[in-house]
Design a protein that fits this description.
By secondary structure, the protein is α+β, with helices and mostly antiparallel strands. The chain is 36% helix and 14% strand. A four-stranded antiparallel beta sheet has the order 1-2-4-3, sandwiched between helices. The model has no long low-confidence stretch (mean pLDDT 86). The structure holds flavin mononucleotide.
């Protein structure tokens, strides 16, 4: 029985949106080409219309376009694959996603047993992050999301008391000849379970 239920996973996925999703990749080498203000406006509008816990919209966005400031800003980033600064491939725009303290410090979120608001606030912040990447992708703009080293972010970014900036988004155009990176995902059968295969209690 479990096998036949999982048979639908063998079907071919449909729709253009999936093509857009799959065409997005993390870009780690950017050319000098700037992102137009029109495109930036569109990308920020995609962020603004993101869903959030209780529609609290716990975010603010810091747009950085000055090369010197971008260099400084990126010093708080956690580099996994690439250090833009070292390779002279800085993105022309970086957007810092700021989480406002008041939305995760207790007033909002689930009361008592849960850490008030923290999970909801962080999960909410992922929504504009993804929306901005996909909106950029639709406009032909490459992107890369970078974690921020919290202790360093306070050194390089002016944040109001208690606010934090857990993530930043680099935007621009991929440098011609950029190194290809192998991109993979786990097979769908490994990550999707039904009540039969996972055993709902
Ligand atoms: C929340 C989040 C944080 C990330 N932080 C970093 C980072 O600090 N450094 C980095 O090199 N890549 C970072 N990435 C990019 C991931 O490594 C990348 O998305 C993953 O390897 C899959 O590759 P793809 O984006 O090309 O599909 C981050 C991605 C996400 C969603």
């Amino acid at each position: 029985m479990a096998k036949s239920i999982l048979d639908f996973l063998k079907g071919k996925p449909k729709g253009n949106f999936l093509e857009l999703l799959k065409s997005r990749k993390s870009t780690y080498e950017f050319s000098d080409r700037d992102v137009s203000n029109d495109d930036l406006r569109t990308i920020l509008e995609a962020a603004r219309w993101s869903p959030s816990f209780r529609n609290l919209q716990p975010w603010e966005f810091v747009v950085v376009k000055n090369k010197g400031k971008i260099t400084k800003f990126l010093q708080s980033a956690h580099y996994g694959f690439y250090d833009f600064g070292k390779h002279g491939s800085l993105p022309p725009v970086v957007i810092g996603l700021v989480l406002k303290k008041k939305y995760w410090s207790g007033e909002y979120g689930f009361p008592s047993t849960d850490k008030a608001g923290v999970f909801e606030a962080y999960m909410s912040l992922a929504m504009p992050a993804m929306n901005m990447m996909l909106s950029a992708q639709e406009l032909g703009i490459a992107s890369c999301m970078l974690n921020v080293r919290e202790s360093l972010s306070y050194k390089f970014v002016h944040l109001e008391d208690g606010d934090c900036m857990p993530i930043m988004l680099c935007l621009g155009y991929e440098k011609p000849g950029a190194k290809e990176r192998k991109r993979e995902r786990k097979p769908i059968e490994q990550i999707v379970h039904t009540e039969f295969s996972a055993g709902v209690k």
